[in-house]
Design brief:
The structure is a single chain. About 15% of the residues lie in helices and about 30% in strands. The chain contains 3 helices and 7 strands. The longest helix is centred in the first third of the chain and has 12 residues.
Length: about 160
């Protein structure tokens, strides 16, 4: 696998460090991402998403969902079982895990539910009014608005 050095990108650009960090993070963790636990990411609507994680064997008290610095961190730690059980086959994995999802700007976690062995985390993108597209009315009169400077007056 190739490795890329993004140092020249950091030296030659201003304000694009998030993109470079994202590319660096994706390329360095491409093969090292654990497969446990399995999860789905669904797009429910234009601005609504759901992450579903299979957490069979974990109770609500074993699970932790936290948002920190644009990252969703889902962790589970099974309490120590002091039972005298003897397993002939132990195929249900209840080992501890931590799964991180990097959230885009303006994506908020709206809720989490643990139902039938699935942890469903709902997310919503809330774009501020200032960033939403807006329609500008076109005037038919030749009158210039006060906020716009006439080019002849400047020159």
């Amino acid at each position: 696998m190739r490795t890329f050095d993004f140092a020249p990108l950091y030296r030659a650009t201003v304000g694009f460090d998030q993109i470079a960090d994202l590319m660096d993070r994706v390329l360095t963790t491409e093969g090292t991402q654990p497969a446990y636990p399995p999860y789905n990411i669904e797009k429910l609507d234009d601005d609504a998403y759901r992450i579903s994680i299979a957490v069979a064997g974990f109770s609500d008290s074993d699970l932790s969902v936290e948002v920190r610095e644009n990252a969703l961190i889902v962790a589970a730690r099974k309490a120590d079982e002091n039972t005298d059980r003897t397993y002939l086959h132990r195929g249900i994995a209840t080992r501890a895990f931590e799964r991180r999802f990097h959230l885009a700007d303006h994506v908020k976690v709206t809720g989490a539910a643990h139902v039938d062995g699935m942890l469903n985390i709902d997310l919503e993108r809330e774009v501020p009014e200032a960033l939403k597209p807006r329609q500008i009315a076109i005037s038919t009169s030749k009158q210039i608005e006060k906020d716009v400077v006439d080019a002849k007056a400047v020159n």
